[in-house]
Amino acid sequence: MKIKSFAAEIFAGISNRNYQFDDGLNILLGNNEAGKSTVINAIYASLFVSPQIRLNTTEGKEFKERFFPYPDGDYAEAEVKFEVNNSDYKFYKKWSNNNYRGFLELSDGRRIENPAKITEYKKEIFPYGKSTYNNIVFSSQQDIKSTLKRINAEENPELIDTINSFLRRAVMELDGVSIDQFRSRIENELEALTKKWNLAADAVSNSDRGINNPYKVGSGEIYDCYIAKEKLRRKIKESKINERKFEELSAEIKKLKKEEAELIKKIRELSEIEAEINQRAAVELEAENIEEKIDKISKTAQKWPKFKAEMAKLKEKMNKAEAKLKKLEAEKKRAKKLQRRNEIKERVKQIKAADNKLQKLLKLNDEAKATPTQVEKMEAYKDKITETKASLKAAKLKAKLNFSASEKIRVLTGVEGEKSIAEGEIIEADGYLRIKTDQIDIEIESAEIDFVSLKEEYNLNQKKFEQLKSKMEVESLEQAREKLNKITEIKREIEAKKNKIDELLARDKLKALENELTELEQVEAARDIENLNPEIEDLKAKISELNTEIKIKENRINEWQEEYQSLTELESILAENKERKEELKVKLNELASLPAQYSSSSEFINDLKTKREKREELNQILRDKLEQHQELENLLPTASTREMESELKDLQNKFESLKNKAKNLLEIKKVFERKLEEMDQNSFKPLINSFSRNLQHLTAGKYETGEIDADFSVKLKSKQKQELPGKLELLSYGTYDAAALALRFAIFDNLFSNYGGFIILDDCLVNFDPERRKKAIELIKEYQKKYQIIYTTCDPERAAEFEANVIQI
């Protein structure tokens, strides 16, 4: 496989690019940040990255950040044309979260857009997986060291398996039978037997997919046999249960038929006198109602005049209670006003006390002579004075007057005053020194500072500092801060007192409260509300009870008047009902007598109704039982239980046989893998030979052989046969890069010698000295005869060292 061209409408920082690639060596030449790495990334993405970028995944977010145009691009687009076995193909990708697209164009011009079909074609086009191409074909020189470190079974199993598989095929064949085919045959047979079955646990792999929820497809012979066996076992169990139910149901049906026949006979006997008993029931009901009316009217005749007298007494009691309640409520109203008077009196007292304290605090605040601004200025002047002194101290002067004809010697140092010194005394000063006698006057200034300016600044700040002290009536900065803190505390207390007064006033005016207090002083005395409330509540309850009793009696008298009009009419109605009662007694004697087992006509009627309902219920149960009987008869299997038990035994034997076969295959596989492991000791020889040959060429024979352990760690041997550690990072940069390039070409050559292909080299000669670079160029030129090489560099001189297709980026 080789790349023929690459085009990108927009991808990361590049746009509207189109490059043609030749066989052999192609050099991408361009300055740093020109887009060389972006072209390589775009080629890789075109071949291996899905066009649908899911922005809610880490992978999708990273792709967008790296390859979507900054700052708000929402897609990237590129295509790669390549040749495989003299046939041309093209991969087109538009990466996006929603509006994505991708297709593979075949040599005959057909376009494949279905992702599953594209994957099938890629398996034919690319002999190895994505990881192999990522770590071997597309790795940059900077990543080669980390790539070698990643080639181990734990971190990159796909790549190491690919290399091992190739090497094993190259050096080990069993009499013409491929080891991989033999392994596949064992594994396929094991899978056909044990799929969905845990042979070690002797159970279904997924406990949730047993007989109650079996797999319909994708299961092995052991699993299928187990399910068939258990289904038959269940069928036998169900058959035995159904047979027992069939017999029990037959007995129940016989019993129900007998019970129904007896019930029909009793219903017929009772039905013969049913009509006259129904008439008797109606007469008895009317007689019962007449008796109830007579009782009710008699009682009403007694209660009516009594209720009238009781109601008059209750109304008199209620009038007295209501008069007393009115007096108590008037007294309670006065008690509330008195309570309000006491509350206002206490509030006014607290408000005036708080206001007196507030006025004192306001006076103290007005008398204060310190503000935050003044303190801040004092601090600033103090800092500047200190800073000036520090600057002067940094320019330290030292002098000694060895001889003077004058007895009076005066000196002025730094910003300090003038003082006398003796002959021979050592003088130290900060930035400025002046020595005066009768004969001389010498000034010495440090060349490192502007003493005059510093002294002026010092004097100015000292003067302002002293002025503020005087104005604030303080002796120091600390005293000024304390004074400011005290003023702040006074202001805080002022605010607290104002809030307290507002809280006590509660939106009222003090004058209004005082006026209300004056009015309340005229209220007459009254008992406390706490003493009045129980008496008032008791009286209200009593009035309510009296009112209820009156209403009850009034309602009852009204009901009697509405029903009977008057006491006279009530007595007339009573006489009529007594006469009707006698007529009904005569009629009952003319009807059929009630059977002895019944105490009343209603009992007879209800019993007959119950028997008929029971008969219907029995009939329905019988029909259901007969239907169940027929269903059970249909469920009974054609084969006997004994025949099914014999079939179950055969399935059990087959089940055990299949498990034994699987166990035997596992033993064969273990022996095979053990033998294969023993044979694997020489599986790296082709790779070692290629690596050693490349390494010797690149290092001009300094390192003659290379060794690769089973865990893929690389060891080198020098010309003096001294073995170096497997950690390549311990070598020099040049040797490390040479070893990495040698091993990469060796792996690539062993993997792709039968397929052809292309490899990306990212300026891999940076750390090579001239001699090794010359050897590396020779090695690259040698490999370009067999493979397509894409070499990236920013150095035109490096590009000129090759005879290649130079692509200017």
UniProtKB/TrEMBL annotation:
Looking at the keywords, is Hydrolase present? yes
Name the UniProt key words of this record, in alphabetical order: Coiled coil, Exonuclease, Hydrolase, Nuclease
GO MF terms, alphabetically ordered? exonuclease activity
Q: Which InterPro entries match?
A: P-loop_NTPase, YhaN_AAA
Where's the YhaN AAA domain? 1-50
- What sections of the sequence does the record tag as coiled-coil? 229-398, 477-682
Quaternary structure note? Heterodimer of SbcC and SbcD.
Q: Would you identify the family this protein belongs to, as annotated?
A: Belongs to the SMC family. SbcC subfamily.
Q: What is this protein called?
A: Nuclease SbcCD subunit C
| Species whose genome carries this gene | Halanaerobium saccharolyticum
